[in-house]
Amino acid sequence: MDSSLLKELQQIVGEQYALSDRASLAVYGYDSTPELESRPGVVLLPACRDEVIRIMGLCAAAGVSVTPRGSGTNLSGGSISHDQGVVIQTSRMNKIIEIDEENLTATVEPGVITSTLHRQVEARGLFYPPDPGSLHISTMGGNVAENSGGLRGLKYGVTADYVMGLETILANGDLLRTGGKVVKDVAGYNLNPLLVSSEGTLGIFTGITVKLIPKPQAKITMLAHFPAMSDAALAVSAIIAAKVIPATLEFLDKVTIKCVEDYAHVGLPLDVDAVLLIEVDGHPVVIAEEAAAVADICQKHRCSFFQTAKNNEEALKLATARRTALSALARLRPTTILEDATVPRSCIAAMLQVIQDAAKKYDVTIGTFGHAGDGNLHPTCLTDERNQDEIKRAHQAFEVIFDAAIAMGGTITGEHGVGLAKKKYLPRLVGESGVRVMRGIKKAFDPQGILNPGKVV
Ligand SMILES: Cc1cc2nc3c(=O)[nH]c(=O)nc-3n(C[C@H](O)[C@H](O)[C@H](O)COP(=O)(O)OP(=O)(O)OC[C@H]3O[C@@H](n4cnc5c(N)ncnc54)[C@H](O)[C@@H]3O)c2cc1C
Questions:
Q1: Residue ranges around ligand 1 (CB below 6 Å)
Q2: What pTM was estimated for this model as a whole?
Q3: Ligand 1 centroid from CA 304, angstroms
Q4: Which end of the chain is more exposed for a tag (fewer CB within 10 A), N or C?
Q5: Which atom of ligand 1 is nearest to the CA of 140?
Q6: What topology is assigned to 218-327 in CATH?
Q7: What CATH architecture does domain 96-214 belong to?
Q8: CB 309, CB 266: distance < 8 Å
Q9: What are phi and psi of 154, to 5 degrees?
């Protein structure tokens, strides 16, 4: 990086918050995506919006690329910087600016950790539902940029359903305000949903206003064991068809169950094909009826055991089985490729078969878990990136899985984003015209192409 530009950037954030030593650059050269790395020129930790504006102004004038970064937990290479570019890391912008109980909104800086916001609003009897598995480490800025989902997505939706207002710094350093605290706003193009899931390619969020709802009064957590995977998949569709919408309807397959049990010792069965974790929440009377309906449906679909948590401690233990799935799988082999092929709920059984067949055909180990209620599955390949032949087979298996997801009317990613990792599959999903429109949008926001270059399109 040009030394005079580096000096000017250091002056903006202060020398200790401009990291350019080899060790820091190596650390920030990765995110949670396997097989991808780069070396940024400098990592800046601004304290406020004005510093981001000044950084963008300088970088735009110099034509230097900028990659925003929260905690680097994304799984699509979204925060891998362009070589020798600037990384803006938001951990110092971590204030909860306001919790507005009259308008039911919270306004935060982008570096706020998701579970910190959960705790603060829940202490006031309010609820911010989006809960990605990474909620204790990922940031609100990253969640918005990826439109993260979570275990409560089935009933409550994803991040996009809660973003009401954004303050975004554009590539040239201009400030763009979209939306706010009003529930109704149809003035001009609806830019919030466009910015949500823009993966750091259209602007840098410095302020985020989200909708809050009243905290559900009660919750019942259940776990059902299924000797046959197909029965678990059918039970998922039957629960929804019975007009019960659980907050959580999650699935673990046999490979994942074994890894979780070895790791977390929560008492999962090792002789079944699948378990479903189901949570219903809301008014105590209503959820008692819903829980009874769920138990009945699981039994009709040949579950071998059905457990209802008797207290919070037991509920937490059951939920841990799902929350630790990725960490448990990741212990088995050096490289974990976690994907999120997503299909209409009615196609879950067929998709699980495709995943099993692809793993067998290409001789790779794939464990699958995920948000069964959303049709959002996480086939996770346990491999070793030093074994190039195995990596090649893993990618061949995923190619089959993505093509099948598209053919079933699904998508290549339900929540992890396109980034670098899934860029090659995007044209297969959205077609030439889709790519053309997306490129046009990118150009309108960032004509020089300096914001997180090379990602998405
Ligand atoms: C164990 C584990 C479990 C996970 N579970 C889930 C899950 O259940 N659901 C789910 O959806 N995802 C999940 N993820 C993926 C990941 O945690 C999410 O994508 C998360 O939102 C990323 O947040 P982050 O702060 O780490 O962002 P980063 O990874 O740092 O960045 C993600 C993207 O956002 C952009 N970005 C970051 N901050 C800003 C900003 N202020 N302005 C503009 N762009 C910005 C970056 O450029 C990048 O493109 C999981 C990951 C792990 C490791």
A1: 31-32, 67-75, 78-79, 90, 110, 132-134, 138-139, 141-143, 145-146, 148-150, 199-200, 204-205, 326, 415-416, 452
A2: 0.96
A3: 37
A4: N
A5: 25
A6: Alpha-Beta Plaits (3.30.70)
A7: 2-Layer Sandwich (3.30)
A8: no
A9: -60, -50
